[in-house]
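request received
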Amino acid sequence: MIASLWQAVWHSFLSGSFWYPLAFVCFALGTLIPAALVALSRNIVHAALWLLPCLVSVAGLYLLLGAELLAAIQILVYCGGIVVLILFAIMLTHGVGDPDVRVHNQQLLWGVVAAMGVAGLILRLLTQEAWQVAASPPPADVTGRLADALMGPYLLAFEVVSVILLAALIGAIVIARGESPAQEPQGPFGHAQGRPAGSEGKE
Amino acid sequence: MSNPAVIPIHAYLIVSTLLFAIGVLAVLTRRNAIAVLMGIELMLNAANINFVVFWRYGGADKMEGLVFAVTVIALAAAEAAIALAIILSVYRRFKTVNVDQINLMRG
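response:
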């Protein structure tokens, strides 16, 4: 009895039918628990740091689903870029890091009710549905085929995204630059423009 | 060996639904605008998980799901940069980033 049970467990070890659900449960809990701490943590710096294991676990879910390139992009862009950007913004806006500041607004109860309502509605709908889908084994060269798709039929979307990134780059610089260059009385070129007009003599 | 059929599609969808609900909770209840932005990032990740799941379980021979996911990640990066620039600009003007204290348009 014990020997057969042990043999079954060992067989599932070898065949991979044990490791995939275990890894899935680990990544799912590693996604949801840090996400809840992001929503509920009192310190905003801790919330931003809890975003990190959440996003890494989402990358793990991508790996389980067979999208290796997307997992790499997730770690590079989210964990390397967006979390660092958020931490920079937290440190540039002071006074938010002390834990005595109230972190939730007056509608905490209604927010919890609304979030549970959204979750309940979607869960009810998706468990009613009998998904007629089958997990076929993954295709051999996912990354190469994704590159072919991006450079082939979806080239327009790719180019539009690159234009949007350029526009966001310029827009972020313009918005975050502040008003100090526009307030200078000597125009955008500083001394080179102001000095011949004799503006220093007036002051 | 690599047989993902042992994990039903419902498990992934439940995880992404709960992640989306947590993002909604963060957006609705947080006072700090940066924390609201973090909630938006959680919701975008939930949507991305759904894209990849339906790509994988809907027959992985078409690449639309992954193309959508890559596009969403790029747009999320652009959105985060713009949103944080706006938050810094708002902080410079109002000396706060709490969204319930920025009520300039209240009558």
